[in-house]
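Newbie here. two chains, one complex. Structure please?
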Amino acid sequence: MIQFEKVAKTYQSGKQEIHALNGIDLTVETGEIYGVIGFSGAGKSSLIRTVNLLERPTSGRVLIHGKDISTLSSKEIRETRKDIGMIFQHFNLLNSKTVYHNVAMPLILANTPKNKIKEQVKDLLDFVGLADQAEKYPDQLSGGQKQRIGIARALATNPSVLLCDEATSALDPQTTQSILELLRRINREYNITILLITHEMGVIREICDKVAVLEAGKVIEQGSVFEVFTNPKQPTTQRFVRSVMNDDLPESLLNQIQDPNRSHTIYRVQFTGPSVGQPLMSRVSREFNLDLNVLFGNITELQGSPYGNLIVEFSGKPAEIEQALKAIRSDTVKVEEVKNYAS
Amino acid sequence: MLVDNEQILEALWETVYMTGASFLFSLIIGFPLGILLVVTRKGHLLANEPVSKVLNIIINIFRSVPFIILMVAIIPLTRLIVGTSIGTAAAIVPLVFYAGPYIARLIENSLLEVDKGVIEAAQAMGATPGQIIFRFLIPEALSSLVLALTIAIVGLIGASAMAGAIGGGGLGDLAITYGYQRFDTLVMVITVAILVILVQGVQSLGNVLSKRVRRS
């Protein structure tokens, strides 16, 4: 478990003080994948570095498994760091060493016997799918392969926590997918708690359980990925959500439906869980004698359960529309009128 | 020609000996200093402003004194260390004072080229400062270090030629005494040619070695 308690970090830049972190309160539960998202300069990278004390908070505490790490001696800090793996945007591998040596490095530092290192590195390389690349050098590998080496290296000391510092930001979309899958496997198979920072909402949607949105060194919104994606409150969060769940209606379509002679209302219908599989719209159309025009539709998966988002134009008698909406609304179906759908 | 082959060979040996010995001692002094210059920098492994400042000032002082003056200036010290201020062994002392700080700077430069991310990764895996220096910084900079030290050796070959001024012997001495003061052009041409070949050889060797240690 990682707890941030009123964590603040201030840099001195000339005479100016820069507040990178401004009182962060966050709790990452054991076994969770927690994502912190923010634009560049929001303080993400300072935040993640306070966990293994690559950066020391100016005030506040960071507790790892209940222990305040800033009170530890440098030797104890080094021991704690072995329990916290870290991977980086630019991989930070040793270019002068082979893949094998890179992965073995944390074990060499810990004076592990040679035959044991050999065994462990082989297992690690197997796990990340690069067993046949052991004798290569990092510059002979692709970005995705380098990140796999970084992951293998981070896992070498059997950490309970893995920090991911923009781990997929330098990778193409396909490679990003495969790295995210690997991270999820690590989380599930080894029950390793993962804290990741990113500026890509897709990464959050793909693997995170919880998310915090960081802006100007403050957490402006946090919650389960499901909550935040289906009901983002802050403008910044809404922008992030829209970046992956774009439901803006095309302008040409808006021109067509904005006919003053047309009596209609537009609603956003959000389905969750089992309701996604139901033919709800056609049933409502039949029962209440309404014309339904689906302007936008999308189904994605959030935290392993389906989530549907429809924007529907209801045409018919207002009373019947009212009735229909009543019938649709339930625990798993949310309906709201879309007023300013022109973005 | 006023000199025979034997004299030329002896002078060559003296040059090699002076360069080699002074390089060795300079390295012993310059290498740790170079590391210290890097790690005591602001924001680095063992950041320490006073140490860093003092070190920089001292090194800059030595680096700003022309070698020919340095040679004369430290004669008392030379006498204290080798018992005499004349001869090949005596020339090694000022050469070390000249090349030690120079090597420290070269090493500082090479080590600074190492990506900061690598140091961060090392810290994140719980490495001690010593481990970071010897298992991360130096191996990553090795190829560049070899080239830097090649520059130092070439510099020392040139400086050792000047040591002839205090009777240090070597090819430089030969060139001055016979080639310049006694107008023996052939001696001048031969000694300069040997120096050129020597420098070319050292540089080529450095290049090859640097390529080879890039991956170890």
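Moderator note: Residues 5-215 of chain B form one domain. The radius of gyration of chain B is 20 Å. Thread marked as resolved.
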